[in-house]
Amino acid sequence: MKVNREYLNLKKSYLFSEIAKRVSEFEEKHPEAKIIRLGIGDVTLPLVPEVIDSMHRAVDDMSKKETFKGYPPEHGQDFLVEKIEKFDYKDRGLDISKDEIFVSDGAKSDTGNILDIFDKDNIVAVCDPIYPVYVDTNIMAGRDGQIIYLETSQENGFSPNLPNRKVDIIYLCSPNNPTGTTMDRNTLKKFVDYANEYDSILLFDSAYEAFITDDNLPKSIYEIPGAKNCAIEFRSFSKTAGFTGVRCGYTVVPKDLKRDSISLNELWARRQATKFNGVSYVTQRAAEAVYSEKGRKQVEENINYYLNNAKTIAKGLESIGIKYYGAENSPYIWFKVPEKFDSWSFFDYLLENANIVGTPGVGFGKMGEGYFRLTGFSDADSTKEAVDRIKKLSF
Ligand code: MLT
Protein backbone atom coordinates (compact mmCIF):
# COMPACT_ATOMS: atom_id res chain seq x y z
CA MET A 1 0.00 0.00 0.00
CA LYS A 2 1.37 3.42 -0.92
CA VAL A 3 0.03 6.83 0.06
CA ASN A 4 0.00 9.83 -2.26
CA ARG A 5 3.46 11.07 -1.36
CA GLU A 6 2.87 14.29 -3.26
CA TYR A 7 1.13 15.48 -0.09
CA LEU A 8 4.52 15.44 1.62
CA ASN A 9 5.56 18.26 -0.71
CA LEU A 10 2.91 20.56 0.75
CA LYS A 11 3.59 23.12 3.45
CA LYS A 12 2.90 21.53 6.83
CA SER A 13 -0.44 23.22 7.34
CA TYR A 14 -2.92 25.22 5.29
CA LEU A 15 -2.45 28.97 5.78
CA PHE A 16 -5.77 29.63 7.50
CA SER A 17 -5.43 26.57 9.74
CA GLU A 18 -2.02 27.84 10.88
CA ILE A 19 -3.48 31.26 11.66
CA ALA A 20 -6.41 29.72 13.58
CA LYS A 21 -3.95 27.64 15.60
CA ARG A 22 -1.78 30.64 16.52
CA VAL A 23 -4.84 32.69 17.48
CA SER A 24 -6.30 29.99 19.71
CA GLU A 25 -2.93 29.58 21.46
CA PHE A 26 -2.90 33.33 22.06
CA GLU A 27 -6.48 33.26 23.35
CA GLU A 28 -5.64 30.50 25.81
CA LYS A 29 -2.84 32.61 27.25
CA HIS A 30 -4.85 35.85 27.16
CA PRO A 31 -8.53 35.02 27.72
CA GLU A 32 -9.24 38.69 28.51
CA ALA A 33 -8.05 39.95 25.10
CA LYS A 34 -10.74 41.43 22.85
CA ILE A 35 -9.59 40.01 19.57
CA ILE A 36 -10.65 41.62 16.29
CA ARG A 37 -10.52 39.21 13.36
CA LEU A 38 -9.48 40.73 10.04
CA GLY A 39 -7.68 37.60 8.90
CA ILE A 40 -9.62 35.00 6.92
CA GLY A 41 -12.04 36.52 4.44
CA ASP A 42 -15.12 35.23 6.19
CA VAL A 43 -18.34 37.22 6.17
CA THR A 44 -19.96 38.42 9.40
CA LEU A 45 -23.37 39.79 8.37
CA PRO A 46 -26.28 37.33 8.54
CA LEU A 47 -27.95 36.10 5.37
CA VAL A 48 -30.29 38.73 3.91
CA PRO A 49 -34.04 38.43 4.65
CA GLU A 50 -34.97 37.37 1.10
CA VAL A 51 -32.55 34.45 1.31
CA ILE A 52 -33.77 33.42 4.74
CA ASP A 53 -37.43 33.53 3.64
CA SER A 54 -36.62 31.42 0.61
CA MET A 55 -34.76 28.89 2.75
CA HIS A 56 -37.72 28.63 5.14
CA ARG A 57 -40.08 27.98 2.24
CA ALA A 58 -37.68 25.38 0.88
CA VAL A 59 -37.52 23.62 4.23
CA ASP A 60 -41.35 23.46 4.17
CA ASP A 61 -41.17 21.99 0.64
CA MET A 62 -38.96 19.25 2.01
CA SER A 63 -41.55 18.43 4.67
CA LYS A 64 -44.35 17.52 2.23
CA LYS A 65 -44.58 14.46 0.02
CA GLU A 66 -45.75 16.51 -3.02
CA THR A 67 -42.85 18.99 -2.90
CA PHE A 68 -40.10 16.88 -1.34
CA LYS A 69 -36.86 16.71 -3.40
CA GLY A 70 -34.31 13.91 -3.50
CA TYR A 71 -31.05 14.04 -5.46
CA PRO A 72 -30.70 17.37 -7.24
CA PRO A 73 -30.13 17.50 -11.04
CA GLU A 74 -26.43 17.13 -11.91
CA HIS A 75 -25.92 20.67 -13.28
CA GLY A 76 -28.05 22.32 -10.62
CA GLN A 77 -31.76 23.09 -10.28
CA ASP A 78 -33.26 24.77 -13.33
CA PHE A 79 -34.75 27.60 -11.25
CA LEU A 80 -31.22 28.61 -10.14
CA VAL A 81 -29.34 27.96 -13.37
CA GLU A 82 -31.89 30.09 -15.27
CA LYS A 83 -31.29 33.03 -12.91
CA ILE A 84 -27.52 32.70 -13.22
CA GLU A 85 -27.78 32.59 -17.01
CA LYS A 86 -30.03 35.66 -17.10
CA PHE A 87 -28.60 37.94 -14.43
CA ASP A 88 -24.90 37.11 -14.52
CA TYR A 89 -24.54 36.65 -18.27
CA LYS A 90 -27.40 37.34 -20.73
CA ASP A 91 -28.43 40.65 -19.12
CA ARG A 92 -24.81 41.74 -19.33
CA GLY A 93 -24.69 40.89 -23.02
CA LEU A 94 -22.73 37.66 -22.52
CA ASP A 95 -23.67 34.57 -24.44
CA ILE A 96 -23.45 31.86 -21.78
CA SER A 97 -26.20 29.26 -21.73
CA LYS A 98 -27.65 26.96 -19.12
CA ASP A 99 -25.76 23.86 -20.19
CA GLU A 100 -22.48 25.68 -19.68
CA ILE A 101 -23.23 26.41 -16.00
CA PHE A 102 -22.49 23.86 -13.26
CA VAL A 103 -23.79 24.63 -9.76
CA SER A 104 -21.45 23.48 -7.00
CA ASP A 105 -20.58 23.87 -3.34
CA GLY A 106 -18.16 26.72 -4.00
CA ALA A 107 -15.19 28.07 -5.91
CA LYS A 108 -12.56 26.65 -3.57
CA SER A 109 -13.54 23.05 -4.31
CA ASP A 110 -14.09 23.66 -8.02
CA THR A 111 -10.74 25.37 -8.61
CA GLY A 112 -9.13 22.30 -7.06
CA ASN A 113 -11.43 19.65 -8.58
CA ILE A 114 -11.13 21.00 -12.12
CA LEU A 115 -7.61 19.54 -12.22
CA ASP A 116 -9.20 16.08 -12.56
CA ILE A 117 -9.87 16.79 -16.23
CA PHE A 118 -6.30 17.80 -17.11
CA ASP A 119 -3.25 15.64 -17.73
CA LYS A 120 -0.62 15.49 -15.01
CA ASP A 121 2.14 16.63 -17.39
CA ASN A 122 0.68 20.10 -17.89
CA ILE A 123 2.73 23.14 -16.90
CA VAL A 124 0.78 25.47 -14.64
CA ALA A 125 1.22 29.20 -14.06
CA VAL A 126 -0.02 30.99 -10.96
CA CYS A 127 0.54 34.52 -9.76
CA ASP A 128 2.73 35.04 -6.73
CA PRO A 129 1.32 36.05 -4.26
CA ILE A 130 -1.92 34.10 -4.72
CA TYR A 131 -4.71 32.11 -3.03
CA PRO A 132 -2.84 29.02 -1.77
CA VAL A 133 -5.48 26.54 -2.99
CA TYR A 134 -4.27 26.82 -6.62
CA VAL A 135 -0.73 25.83 -5.68
CA ASP A 136 -1.61 23.18 -3.08
CA THR A 137 -4.08 21.34 -5.31
CA ASN A 138 -1.52 21.15 -8.10
CA ILE A 139 1.09 19.82 -5.71
CA MET A 140 -1.42 17.18 -4.52
CA ALA A 141 -1.96 16.23 -8.17
CA GLY A 142 1.78 15.69 -8.66
CA ARG A 143 2.72 18.93 -10.40
CA ASP A 144 5.07 20.27 -7.75
CA GLY A 145 7.90 20.71 -10.24
CA GLN A 146 5.63 22.07 -12.98
CA ILE A 147 4.43 25.30 -11.41
CA ILE A 148 5.62 28.59 -12.89
CA TYR A 149 5.17 31.71 -10.76
CA LEU A 150 4.10 34.98 -12.37
CA GLU A 151 5.62 37.34 -9.84
CA THR A 152 3.74 40.47 -8.95
CA SER A 153 5.03 43.28 -6.78
CA GLN A 154 4.82 47.02 -6.18
CA GLU A 155 6.89 47.44 -9.35
CA ASN A 156 4.20 45.99 -11.63
CA GLY A 157 1.32 47.19 -9.42
CA PHE A 158 0.57 43.56 -8.49
CA SER A 159 -0.61 42.91 -12.04
CA PRO A 160 0.89 39.77 -13.64
CA ASN A 161 2.89 39.76 -16.85
CA LEU A 162 2.37 37.02 -19.41
CA PRO A 163 4.44 33.86 -18.87
CA ASN A 164 7.75 34.04 -20.72
CA ARG A 165 7.40 30.45 -21.89
CA LYS A 166 4.60 28.18 -22.99
CA VAL A 167 2.36 27.07 -20.14
CA ASP A 168 -0.79 24.96 -20.30
CA ILE A 169 -2.94 26.16 -17.43
CA ILE A 170 -3.03 29.71 -16.03
CA TYR A 171 -4.91 30.71 -12.90
CA LEU A 172 -6.13 34.30 -12.73
CA CYS A 173 -8.05 35.84 -9.84
CA SER A 174 -9.67 39.25 -10.23
CA PRO A 175 -10.47 41.09 -7.98
CA ASN A 176 -7.40 39.47 -6.59
CA ASN A 177 -7.01 37.51 -3.43
CA PRO A 178 -4.83 38.58 -1.62
CA THR A 179 -3.72 41.88 -3.18
CA GLY A 180 -7.17 43.37 -3.80
CA THR A 181 -6.05 44.57 -7.25
CA THR A 182 -8.20 44.12 -10.36
CA MET A 183 -7.28 43.23 -13.92
CA ASP A 184 -8.51 45.63 -16.59
CA ARG A 185 -9.77 44.64 -20.02
CA ASN A 186 -6.44 45.16 -21.79
CA THR A 187 -4.55 42.96 -19.36
CA LEU A 188 -7.16 40.22 -19.52
CA LYS A 189 -7.20 40.47 -23.32
CA LYS A 190 -3.45 39.77 -23.36
CA PHE A 191 -4.01 36.58 -21.36
CA VAL A 192 -6.92 35.49 -23.53
CA ASP A 193 -4.86 36.06 -26.69
CA TYR A 194 -1.90 34.22 -25.17
CA ALA A 195 -4.10 31.26 -24.18
CA ASN A 196 -5.67 31.03 -27.62
CA GLU A 197 -2.27 31.26 -29.30
CA TYR A 198 -0.62 28.60 -27.13
CA ASP A 199 -3.64 26.34 -26.61
CA SER A 200 -3.58 27.02 -22.87
CA ILE A 201 -6.55 27.13 -20.52
CA LEU A 202 -7.32 30.10 -18.27
CA LEU A 203 -8.89 29.27 -14.92
CA PHE A 204 -10.55 32.55 -14.00
CA ASP A 205 -11.60 32.91 -10.37
CA SER A 206 -14.06 35.77 -10.02
CA ALA A 207 -15.30 34.95 -6.52
CA TYR A 208 -15.00 38.66 -5.63
CA GLU A 209 -16.65 40.17 -8.73
CA ALA A 210 -19.56 41.55 -6.68
CA PHE A 211 -17.14 44.04 -5.10
CA ILE A 212 -16.41 45.72 -8.43
CA THR A 213 -18.04 49.13 -8.44
CA ASP A 214 -16.07 50.58 -11.36
CA ASP A 215 -18.14 49.95 -14.50
CA ASN A 216 -15.04 49.92 -16.69
CA LEU A 217 -13.67 46.81 -15.02
CA PRO A 218 -14.69 43.40 -16.34
CA LYS A 219 -16.65 41.17 -13.97
CA SER A 220 -16.49 38.12 -16.17
CA ILE A 221 -13.71 36.76 -18.35
CA TYR A 222 -16.33 36.25 -21.07
CA GLU A 223 -16.47 40.02 -21.54
CA ILE A 224 -13.17 39.55 -23.35
CA PRO A 225 -13.49 38.46 -26.99
CA GLY A 226 -12.09 34.97 -27.53
CA ALA A 227 -12.47 33.90 -23.89
CA LYS A 228 -15.07 31.23 -24.65
CA ASN A 229 -12.37 29.33 -26.50
CA CYS A 230 -9.89 29.31 -23.67
CA ALA A 231 -11.43 30.12 -20.26
CA ILE A 232 -13.28 28.43 -17.42
CA GLU A 233 -14.86 30.79 -14.89
CA PHE A 234 -15.48 30.16 -11.18
CA ARG A 235 -18.08 32.10 -9.21
CA SER A 236 -19.22 31.89 -5.64
CA PHE A 237 -22.11 33.07 -3.48
CA SER A 238 -19.78 33.06 -0.47
CA LYS A 239 -18.56 36.62 -0.62
CA THR A 240 -21.37 37.90 -2.85
CA ALA A 241 -24.23 36.85 -0.58
CA GLY A 242 -22.61 35.68 2.65
CA PHE A 243 -22.77 31.95 1.84
CA THR A 244 -19.41 30.96 3.36
CA GLY A 245 -21.30 28.68 5.75
CA VAL A 246 -24.11 27.75 3.36
CA ARG A 247 -21.89 26.65 0.45
CA CYS A 248 -22.89 27.41 -3.11
CA GLY A 249 -21.07 28.54 -6.23
CA TYR A 250 -20.88 27.67 -9.89
CA THR A 251 -18.42 27.01 -12.67
CA VAL A 252 -18.84 27.93 -16.32
CA VAL A 253 -17.29 25.64 -18.91
CA PRO A 254 -18.22 26.89 -22.40
CA LYS A 255 -19.26 24.34 -24.99
CA ASP A 256 -16.81 25.85 -27.49
CA LEU A 257 -13.94 25.00 -25.17
CA LYS A 258 -12.01 22.07 -26.61
CA ARG A 259 -8.49 20.77 -26.31
CA ASP A 260 -7.16 17.77 -28.26
CA SER A 261 -10.56 18.03 -30.02
CA ILE A 262 -12.18 16.98 -26.72
CA SER A 263 -14.97 19.03 -25.12
CA LEU A 264 -13.98 20.19 -21.63
CA ASN A 265 -17.66 20.83 -20.92
CA GLU A 266 -18.35 17.11 -21.45
CA LEU A 267 -15.37 16.06 -19.33
CA TRP A 268 -16.42 18.31 -16.46
CA ALA A 269 -20.03 17.12 -16.70
CA ARG A 270 -18.75 13.54 -16.53
CA ARG A 271 -16.49 14.31 -13.58
CA GLN A 272 -19.25 16.03 -11.63
CA ALA A 273 -21.80 13.30 -12.37
CA THR A 274 -19.44 10.72 -10.93
CA LYS A 275 -17.85 12.49 -7.98
CA PHE A 276 -20.37 15.13 -6.92
CA ASN A 277 -23.96 14.74 -5.82
CA GLY A 278 -25.02 18.33 -6.19
CA VAL A 279 -26.06 21.11 -3.86
CA SER A 280 -28.99 20.74 -1.50
CA TYR A 281 -32.41 21.99 -2.62
CA VAL A 282 -32.62 24.39 0.34
CA THR A 283 -29.26 25.91 -0.55
CA GLN A 284 -30.17 26.31 -4.21
CA ARG A 285 -33.43 28.03 -3.26
CA ALA A 286 -31.35 30.31 -1.03
CA ALA A 287 -29.05 31.13 -3.96
CA GLU A 288 -32.02 31.73 -6.25
CA ALA A 289 -33.33 34.40 -3.85
CA VAL A 290 -30.11 36.38 -4.30
CA TYR A 291 -31.35 37.22 -7.82
CA SER A 292 -34.83 38.45 -6.82
CA GLU A 293 -35.31 42.21 -6.98
CA LYS A 294 -35.29 42.58 -3.20
CA GLY A 295 -32.52 40.02 -2.84
CA ARG A 296 -30.22 41.91 -5.18
CA LYS A 297 -30.77 45.16 -3.27
CA GLN A 298 -30.21 43.54 0.12
CA VAL A 299 -27.05 41.79 -1.02
CA GLU A 300 -25.72 45.01 -2.53
CA GLU A 301 -26.19 46.76 0.80
CA ASN A 302 -24.06 44.12 2.48
CA ILE A 303 -21.36 44.42 -0.17
CA ASN A 304 -21.32 48.21 0.34
CA TYR A 305 -21.04 47.69 4.08
CA TYR A 306 -17.91 45.55 3.61
CA LEU A 307 -16.50 47.98 1.05
CA ASN A 308 -16.96 50.80 3.57
CA ASN A 309 -15.06 48.79 6.15
CA ALA A 310 -12.28 48.26 3.64
CA LYS A 311 -12.18 52.01 3.00
CA THR A 312 -12.07 52.72 6.75
CA ILE A 313 -8.99 50.51 7.05
CA ALA A 314 -7.42 52.01 3.93
CA LYS A 315 -7.91 55.58 5.21
CA GLY A 316 -6.49 54.63 8.60
CA LEU A 317 -3.37 53.14 7.03
CA GLU A 318 -2.98 56.14 4.76
CA SER A 319 -3.17 58.50 7.73
CA ILE A 320 -0.11 56.84 9.28
CA GLY A 321 1.80 56.83 6.00
CA ILE A 322 1.27 53.22 4.97
CA LYS A 323 0.74 52.65 1.26
CA TYR A 324 -1.92 50.09 0.48
CA TYR A 325 -3.43 48.21 -2.47
CA GLY A 326 -7.03 47.08 -2.91
CA ALA A 327 -9.92 48.37 -0.75
CA GLU A 328 -11.57 49.63 -3.93
CA ASN A 329 -13.48 47.02 -5.93
CA SER A 330 -12.28 44.54 -3.32
CA PRO A 331 -12.84 43.62 0.33
CA TYR A 332 -9.08 43.15 0.82
CA ILE A 333 -6.42 45.66 1.84
CA TRP A 334 -2.84 44.70 1.07
CA PHE A 335 0.13 46.65 2.38
CA LYS A 336 3.84 46.54 3.10
CA VAL A 337 4.65 45.94 6.75
CA PRO A 338 6.85 48.49 8.55
CA GLU A 339 10.62 48.08 7.91
CA LYS A 340 11.65 46.11 10.97
CA PHE A 341 9.13 43.29 10.42
CA ASP A 342 8.57 40.41 8.07
CA SER A 343 5.05 39.10 7.41
CA TRP A 344 4.85 36.63 10.33
CA SER A 345 6.62 38.85 12.87
CA PHE A 346 4.13 41.60 12.00
CA PHE A 347 1.30 39.10 12.45
CA ASP A 348 2.59 38.29 15.96
CA TYR A 349 3.20 41.95 16.77
CA LEU A 350 -0.31 42.96 15.73
CA LEU A 351 -1.90 40.07 17.62
CA GLU A 352 0.08 40.71 20.80
CA ASN A 353 -0.01 44.52 20.83
CA ALA A 354 -3.38 45.32 19.27
CA ASN A 355 -5.19 41.97 19.50
CA ILE A 356 -5.87 42.13 15.78
CA VAL A 357 -5.70 39.09 13.52
CA GLY A 358 -4.56 39.65 9.94
CA THR A 359 -3.04 37.42 7.28
CA PRO A 360 0.72 37.36 6.67
CA GLY A 361 1.44 38.07 3.01
CA VAL A 362 4.09 35.37 2.77
CA GLY A 363 1.32 32.80 3.31
CA PHE A 364 0.26 33.62 -0.25
CA GLY A 365 3.70 33.03 -1.77
CA LYS A 366 7.28 34.18 -1.49
CA MET A 367 6.53 37.50 -3.23
CA GLY A 368 4.11 38.20 -0.38
CA GLU A 369 6.94 38.30 2.14
CA GLY A 370 6.99 41.69 3.85
CA TYR A 371 3.31 42.26 3.08
CA PHE A 372 0.13 41.84 5.06
CA ARG A 373 -3.58 41.47 4.30
CA LEU A 374 -6.55 42.82 6.23
CA THR A 375 -10.20 42.31 5.30
CA GLY A 376 -13.29 44.47 5.30
CA PHE A 377 -15.45 41.52 6.34
CA SER A 378 -15.65 42.34 10.04
CA ASP A 379 -18.39 44.51 11.52
CA ALA A 380 -18.14 48.28 11.17
CA ASP A 381 -17.55 49.07 14.86
CA SER A 382 -14.81 46.46 15.24
CA THR A 383 -13.20 47.71 12.05
CA LYS A 384 -13.10 51.29 13.38
CA GLU A 385 -11.79 50.02 16.70
CA ALA A 386 -9.08 48.04 14.89
CA VAL A 387 -8.00 51.12 12.97
CA ASP A 388 -7.79 53.13 16.22
CA ARG A 389 -5.68 50.41 17.78
CA ILE A 390 -3.33 50.28 14.77
CA LYS A 391 -2.91 54.07 14.84
CA LYS A 392 -1.76 53.88 18.46
CA LEU A 393 1.01 51.40 17.70
CA SER A 394 4.55 52.57 17.29
CA PHE A 395 6.34 50.87 14.46
C1 MLT B 1 -9.39 34.06 2.26
O1 MLT B 1 -9.41 34.59 3.36
O2 MLT B 1 -8.43 34.14 1.49
C2 MLT B 1 -10.62 33.33 1.84
O3 MLT B 1 -11.57 33.37 2.83
C3 MLT B 1 -10.32 31.96 1.56
C4 MLT B 1 -11.44 31.27 0.89
O4 MLT B 1 -12.33 31.88 0.31
O5 MLT B 1 -11.40 30.05 0.91
Could you characterize what this model shows?
The termini are far apart. The chain has helices at 15-29, 49-63, 78-89, 107-113, 132-140, 185-198, 238-241, 264-275, 281-289, 293-319, 343-354, 380-392, and strands at 36-37, 101-104, 124-128, 147-151, 169-173, 201-205, 231-236, 249-252, 258-259, 262-263, 324-326, 332-336, 356-357, 359-360, 371-375. 38% of the residues lie in helices and 14% in strands. It is α/β, with parallel strands linked by helices and 395 residues long. D-malate (MLT) is lined by residues 40-42, 108, 131, 177.
Mind sketching the topology for me?
Elements: H1 15-29, E1 36-37, H2 49-63, H3 78-89, E2 101-104, H4 107-113, E3 124-128, H5 132-140, E4 147-151, E5 169-173, H6 185-198, E6 201-205, E7 231-236, H7 238-241, E8 249-252, E9 258-259, E10 262-263, H8 264-275, H9 281-289, H10 293-319, E11 324-326, E12 332-336, H11 343-354, E13 356-357, E14 359-360, E15 371-375, H12 380-392
Parallel strand pairs: 1-13, 3-4, 3-5, 5-6, 6-7
Antiparallel strand pairs: 2-8, 7-8, 9-10, 11-12, 12-15, 14-15
The chain binds D-malate.
Terminus-to-terminus distance: 53 Å
| Sheet with the most strands, sense and barrel status | 7 strands, mixed
**Gyration radius from CA atoms, angstroms:** 21 Å
Strand content is 5-15%
Structural class: alpha/beta
What small-molecule ligands were found? D-malate
Q: Overall mean pLDDT score? A: 97
Total helical segments? 12
Report the helical percentage.
25-40%
Order of helices and strands: HEHHEHEHEEHEEHEEEHHHEEHEEEH
Low-confidence stretches at least 5 residues in length (pLDDT < 50)?
Answer: none
The dominant shape is globular
